[in-house]
Fold:
Amino acid sequence: MRYLPTSDPIRQRMLADLGLNSIDELFSHIPEYCRLQRPLNIPKGQAEADIIRFFRAAAAENAPGFTSFVGAGAYHHFRPTHVDTLISRGEWFTAYTPYQPEISQGTLQSIFEFQTMICQLTGQDVANAGMYDGSTALHEACMMAARVTGRSGMVVARSIHPQYRQVLRTLTRYRDFPTTEVGFGTDGRIDVAALRAAVNSGTAAVAVQSPNFFGNLEDWEQAAEIAHGAGALLIAVITDPVSLGLLPPPEAADIVAMELQGFGIPVGFGGPYAGIIASRDKFVRSLPGRLVGEARDSEGRRGFVLTLSTREQHIRREKATSNICTNQALCALMASIFMATYGKQGLRELAEQNLAKAAYAASAFTAAGAEVLFPSPRFHEFVVRLKRPLAASKSALKKAKLIAGLPLNEHYPELGEALLVCVTEIITREDIDRLVAAL
Amino acid sequence: MPYPANFRFTPEHEWVAVDGTQAKVGITDYAQKQLGDIVFVELPAVGAELVAGQAFGTVESVKAVSEIFAPVSGTVSAINSALVQSPELLNSDPHGAAWMVEVKVAGKANDKLMDAAAYEKFVAEEEASH
Amino acid sequence: MSSSTPRASRHIVQNEDLLFEVSSPGKRGYQLPALDVPAVTLAAARREIPDCPEVSELEVIRHFTRLSTWNYGVDTGIYPLGSCTMKYNARVNEAVTRLEGLGDGHPLQPEELSQGALRIMQLLSEYLLEITGMDAITLQPAAGAQGELTGILLVRAALTARGDARKKVLIPDSAHGTNPATAAIAGYTVENLKSNPDGTVDMASLDRQMTRDVAALMLTNPNTLGIFEEDIHRIADLVHERGGMLYMDGANMNALVGRSRPGDFGVDVMHLNLHKTFSTPHGGGGPGSGPVAVKKTLEPYLPIPVLRVKRGKPVLDYRRPKSIGRVRAFYGNFGMFTRALAYIMANGSDGLKQTTEDAVLNANYIRRKLQDVFALPYPTPSMHEVVFSDSIQAAQGVHTGDIAKRLIDYGFHPYTVSFPLVVRGAMMIEPTESANQREMDEFIAALRAIAEESKNTPELVTGAPHTTKISRLDEVAAARNPVLRWRPSKSEAAQS
Structure:
């Protein structure tokens, strides 16, 4: 086997050193009934060329070369070539958690920079080193709000990504977190009157997404005022960090739960991604996940360490702030490289292009006679009600190698034959025109 | 560090010094040594009710966290805010400047409390068992 | 090591400031294509991102390259971090993950346009079920700890469905911290189960504690001491007789693949760590992936969607009325599925078994060559890892953490320090199959030399490392006054 750095003669010598005749003796203490008495029913080891052939065939069945207008929590943004070049260095991707800071300063400094850039972007004081993704970050944010407030009620906008809400329901199934969902108005934004009515003295957190699932922008200040008025926290949910290049940061929020995929992490059929939790300094000891802090060595040199670890499961066990162990470090590194590459000007220009492309697409749909729902400011997604069912356009779309958007009938049946369309900077005007013509 | 004769001690390594109906509570020299460099102390608010034997705060070092159990029941009448600011006081002066809370005692004191001699013996046994 | 060159050497290591310090106004590392639609202004746009870096592309490359040189990875050398299974990460796994169609496939694109990705998930599922001997699987959990949570939620859903609400989960004192943290999040109280002098489950304690109020026993097998629970069948029978379920933490599956299957020894539900056993890269601390495999009784509760084969085609089944729901958006860490599948295909049934055997042989080799200088708290046979304690060296004031730091000077990544908690001063060594004999001999020689130093020049060990870019950092000061982000100094702030 080509991955094993040994040989039969070496194995024999090592066994002899142990005073053994056969490798079976090392497994002889395992009771007979626990031993598998046959080879695994898996084909024998294959050559690299065979493996590549298999995956190429699979990739060919997965819409390569299609232009996709699906967003909904996973966004096709351009990934600079050097993101993969850099993260493919073995020192990055074959290292583990920086438990030994003296030989992990690369990872530790990059996380410190990551935490800083997330704070700059979100307007928060402190950010952790990463969570699994945006959906699980929302769950962690809710648990954190419950710890901070000593309350358990959750008020959640129905315009938060439906899968995020499903995850929250699953993971809080056996916790006493009474959850109320608040609907949206004809402008696609949260129903403010319903929100006011839903919040009470038992509410731990109000969770709002902006841009929301329909692409419309919510008002952080107003949501914060309503939450804080009842002594609750505001959780700001963001599914595409690219939006923060242009949109007002959620400074009014107490906790930010954000998906970072848009920052240079491959769409990759849904993962791996990275989420973050950012918050206020005063809540730092309630944060879930890893944190990196600055430290000095005996000669006064600056370095970085994992810190405030007593919040975490390996020390506090059943009383930990979360059971999470990882911080999706390699995905966070992709996001750091992406942020560094685009920088202050680039992140703004990138967001402006997304805004402009989506605005053009929405007006093109309107001009073609389709109904664009929810007339309030948007970022790069919008909802369009089609003139004819999507199924009728299926073969035309496939022929044109277009994926039109996400049908909303499953999660929002009241919207009818509606499609959530996402237009990022990688989509050209010609692509948009082709899509409008095909539907 | 000697264990003051006027203190009483719990098996979880807290001390209490009772003066009439007022009591001061802290953790022992042995406890701080076990934890190492203290980096954080979390104390209840003034007015909080303590119940003997139940946790009322936490002490943290870099790699350990320990709950603090109330040696007596009563109402917190003062907390040591200097200790919250400078948790390292627990390492330098656990029986003095690093007192944690002052309690207005209600009801009977915990009858499992040890005097200094008994506690010293208890600690010696703990040491030996490791 | 006498005939070979010492592993550690000196080499130029460059210092590198923080990105924000390298930054200079007006520099840029990007260029967007010309905008081909009319520009739009947003009334409520934000002010500029304060202090956000501005650097050129070359500076980005140099920055992250220099930082990388301060790290140690599996590609650098032996990485014997116990419990983490730091094995070789083959490059073909990376290449196939990035193929067009897979690397950029959208999770919500139509199912008929996603057949390739679903076929990959289907094949991986089949192989993992064959390896574990279980009946059904979900690939959705994002990491091991989320797999644990998913597994415990499945147990709770099944028990609730049969009207048997239970309150507790039993967890051995040698377990990973994620186990009790997980049980707590699932709403259970945690009860500690003490190990016996062999380092395994104490049957008398289990008999006493396994009451009708216990939902599950969470067991790691082999456990964190690297010891196979030889009473596993009696353990499983006892748990089942009392109406509970046996959860297995699959963190140590690298000791079992091709040799022993949890499904054959009474496990009801378990998770796998694709980043440990199946070689998906650890990435400096993630991403992981934590599939959960179950027996038939728990299948109805698996998270949605469940992957099924219908008329020869993989389909996603959302109509699962008993399902616990979703545990993560989309389908989990798909990019880890491609890597793990490529690993299994490259090894095959023969290579997987050989891998397990080499991992166990290597751990036992290290054990044999070090057991005369380091204390072995549990003489029970070792599987894929061995746990020593520092008790001999501690007499000289040298502790496990010191020995670990001194290993760095010899050119090695340390073992896992102070875990499992049941061993005072634990030194947990897992060489994996990826350590070759030559490097293991060097590693062994280094630890033997450190044992000598601990006797003769203990200050050399307690002050280590002496050769790194920075020496030991003041973690106490860092925790007392946490600095968790960079901020501009007053003069820099005034300039901008």
